[in-house]
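pinging the channel bc i need a second pair of eyes. not urgent but kinda urgent?? the chain im working w is below, pasted from the shared doc
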Amino acid sequence: MNKHDIDIIRGLAERVAEIAALPVQEEKRRLWRALNAKRPERPMVMIDQVCWNEMDVGGELTLLCEDAECLDYEQFLRRTLYQWDHFRCDMVVEPFIRVKKAITGWHFGLGVNEETKTGDPTNDVISHRYINQFETDADLDKIKMPEIVHDEAETSRRLAVADTLFGGILAIEPHGEDPRVCFWDPISTWMSVEGACWALADRPDYIHELLRRMKASYLAGLDYLEDNGLLCKSQSLIHCTGAYTDELPAAGFNPDKPRTRDLWVMGLAQMFSTVSPAMFEEFEVNYIKGICARYGLVYYGCCDPLDNKMAEVRKIPNVRKVSVSTWADQERAARNMGDEFVFSRKPNPAYLVGGSYNTDLVRADLQNTVDICARGGCPLEIILKDISTVLREPRRLWEWNDIAMEVVCS
């Protein structure tokens, strides 16, 4: 690192620290706690998974550091400040920096065989064509038990770098693994979505054996992380939403050795959007419910519509938030969820893209969600995410922020 880079990082960190010290940060944490306890004072709003390649205005996101490690921190700080300035919604700016522990080896043992295409080299949203790697019984042996390694020397080096950059400005928190329970996203990349869907119908016993091996591998890795104090000890977000709650960590918490029951976990089976509730239970719920029982709280779902699968979702222990995707029937979701779960609505990001971009349409869509949840008694959060493009007009996202906050605060 050179003095030029250090000065840049410390200057950005000082502004982040000033924002993190504002009383509004604790007020937002309090509002998230109320929502996550299913006693909301109002709907909460977040924007995440942004097309950052289209957001730069006046050089606010231009990176100036030279060192690769400094560049990563600079990008995080600049994006935090940009979001606070332009579309903060109910974000919380923390007074600390998380430093990822140097943990490797928690995976199923194989990578992805794919072809990719992109229309915009500056955008990390690209197209994938996955090659099926699971066609024979022998292919099942590709699923391996994890061989997790924590490089303590590398973790110490990372913490020393962070201390040079942030010491005296922001606290530094060593950050362990923040797990997810997700079998079908990797399966869809190993087999392709089409290949996996055909196998569900044509070779169910094969898929069951694949899932049994994946579950055994996941649990072995989870046991190792828990036994060796390698899980994260705090979470600000759980899948793009505020994770603040008075229910976690659980009694007996040791910050040097966090347990799964001290944490949220996010689960999903996005490619199950088109399978029946019975298949959802057979090939997803039955494999993850024992895992989710180990965690303190669960956020379930993503792009997969779950409005007609809530009877099955209820069989997953500790679920607190349920995704209500763009493709879900909101009225049916509200009827089937009631006040038992946080209604985690994902509005359609396509409203920000069309050539006939219309703020009245955005407002009507958000108000419709608020009204449906008010009638159904559903605790509500609105999470705008998966924003691939705003046609290089970042002001559209800023306007969505302003409209959403007006709707939920009115």
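so The CA atoms of residues 26 and 117 lie 43 Å apart. and The chain has a mean pLDDT of 96. — does that match what u expected or am i reading it wrong
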